[in-house]
Design goal:
This protein is α+β, with helices and mostly antiparallel strands. The chain has one domain. The protein is built from six helices and five strands; from the N terminus they run ααββββααααβ. The strands form two sheets. A three-stranded mixed β-sheet has the order 1-2-5, with no helix packed on it. The protein has a two-stranded antiparallel ribbon with strand order 3-4. The chain is globular, with a radius of gyration of 16 Å. The chain binds iron/sulfur cluster (SF4) (2 copies). One iron/sulfur cluster (SF4) binds next to α4.
Length: about 140
């Protein structure tokens, strides 16, 4: 039997199906810096103040955009224009017509696999809270999908 992520386009999914796609890697919740001259985006090892780093989940998902000005709410319309999502992002994979990876929780039922197999931000991120603006550049990391 085919599953919804194999048959539906992103815009056809229910909100529950959409939400269930997220693998919980936490990579989209890292603080990013933009070079204003080149528009290049750099990821840091700092997590948004609302990210529960161990769980890799937003601690106030419902109100996230009220609490964090630059929190981007993903949808099927803006997905293509967002350059900083990791190539492993489940939304990006489905948008590109690719399958979900073998370890994805929708295929295995195991929500820990994203931490063990892919490697989520749980393993390296620290909170942005208390980090001074002039120190942000020291936290830039090489992005590895
Ligand atoms: S990068 Fe994609 S899959 Fe990972 S947490 Fe963000 S939205 Fe979910
Ligand atoms: S507000 Fe929540 S969803 Fe938005 S970037 Fe921060 S932790 Fe992620």
């Amino acid at each position: 039997m085919s599953e919804f992520w194999q048959t539906k386009k992103l815009h056809q999914m229910t909100s529950a199906e959409w939400e269930s796609l997220c693998d919980g890697c936490g990579k989209c919740c890292l603080v990013k810096l933009e070079d204003f001259d080149t528009a290049e985006i750099y990821h840091t090892d700092l997590a948004c103040k609302l990210l529960n780093i161990n769980a890799c989940r937003c601690s106030d998902y419902k109100n996230r955009q009220k609490q964090v000005d630059d929190c981007v709410k993903l949808d099927h319309k803006n997905l293509e224009s967002i350059q900083w999502l990791p190539d492993t992002c489940a939304y990006k994979l489905i948008e590109q017509g690719k399958p979900l990876p073998d370890w994805h929780h929708l295929r295995t039922g195991n929500r820990e696999a994203v931490h063990q197999v892919l490697g989520s931000v749980r393993h390296f991120a620290t909170s942005e809270v208390g980090v001074k603006e002039h120190d942000l550049e020291q936290h830039i990391i090489q992005w590895v999908d």
